[in-house]
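Protocol step 6 of 9: fold each sequence in the batch and record its structure tokens directly after the sequence line. For illustration, a two-sequence batch is reproduced in full.

Sequence one:
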Amino acid sequence: MPAPGPPPNGARTDGDAGPARKAGAGAGAVEVVVVRQEPSAPGGETTAVRLLGLLPADWICVPDDVGTDRVRLRIEYGHGGHGVGDSDGVHGALAEVLADTALRGWSAEPS
């Protein structure tokens, strides 16, 4: 039986950062936190999945901590084709994603 293909969304499971991530030119990471503002909004687990689905597919996003009312993601920038080369760009893109009705009741925690 052939070995399974790579995981979806460019995720790596072998512990290797890969050549693009090792290069580090203009690359970095930012931690973003979203918090539930409305009790009727979906819980953190659902929100984490929705966030990952709405953020650009070529971003490297890792859920660091997912709680009922708080989700923390680590997002690496400077690798994808979305022109986001700094943490301000990540936060701007996150603000656009949080405007989606699927994430109503959640907002970014000030950094």
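Sequence two, same batch, same settings:
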Amino acid sequence: MDELFSHIAQWLGESHTSWRGRTSYNVEIVLAIAMSIGGAIIAKDYAAQRKANRERTLLALSSIELVATSFSGQDGQRVKYRGTLRQENEAYTVSILRQSDLERTETHSQPLPSLEAVEAYLTSQTVFVLADFKEPPASHPQAG
């Protein structure tokens, strides 16, 4: 067994010179392969989470509107953003209410054809992302 570990350690320590003159070791190659495999697994898991979130959003939007809330400070005052996402006639609309001590403004999106379009609109025009939108607290059943 010790001989096996000795051969593995020796192989990992072997160096190779590339045509560019850079010296690399087998251990670097093994680590690069391991990182690539790990990255692929993480990317697949992230894609599955995004798909599950999108499916939950689609299911929830078929019956209710989803809301998101964010607070920030601008020019020394507290600003509250409340976003509403709803599905209307095979399209989605986003409403954003911006409320501070001095003003209250509401903006509405044009009808958006898909959740991908909603996501693009949110990231470019608002402080929200699609994952921020959840069922409003009043729509959850009360335990008791």
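Proceed to step 7 once all outputs are recorded. Observation for sequence two: Strands lie at 15-17, 23-25, 66-74, 77-88, 91-99, 104-108.
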